[in-house]
Amino acid sequence: MCIPLDDSAMVCWLKTQVRVIEAWREELACRAEIDIPALLRLEEHYAWLTSEVARLEDPSSRQAA
What we know:
By secondary structure, the chain is mainly alpha-helical. The protein has one domain. The chain is built from two helices and no strands. It is elongated, with a radius of gyration of 15 Å. The chain starts with 7 loop residues before the first helix and ends in an 8-residue tail after the last helix.
């Protein structure tokens, strides 16, 4: 099954997920007992998701099928 990822509602939802990850990242970083491996995994996911959102929002990245 193929889901149209360039749908504006999907991009909006993905941006919400980025904000959730930002809040989660801040919470992990502020803890007295920092779980470095968890923080690094979260940071990797954040970087990937933000780059995907940017790619989806860039009209030049879309190719005609």
